Sequence to fold (76 residues):
Amino acid sequence: MAPIFDDPALRYGRGMMLYEAAGGPGLMVGHSGGAPGFRAIVAYLPAEPAFVAVMINDERPAEAGLWALVQAARGA
Fold:
């Protein structure tokens, strides 16, 4: 995986990203994207360990939905 956005902590390769979302569940390997009014993410979270897929009808980043789902699964 090669660094992206001039940030060595963000890596991308073969359609997958290795990154940490601010205030999120920690290191994630996955991909997110969307269109106006729609967002989606599929990610593996090694610290949980879990695979999570989220689709939302919202303008917020899909990572926000993923983090809310992880917190609910933890019982937080």
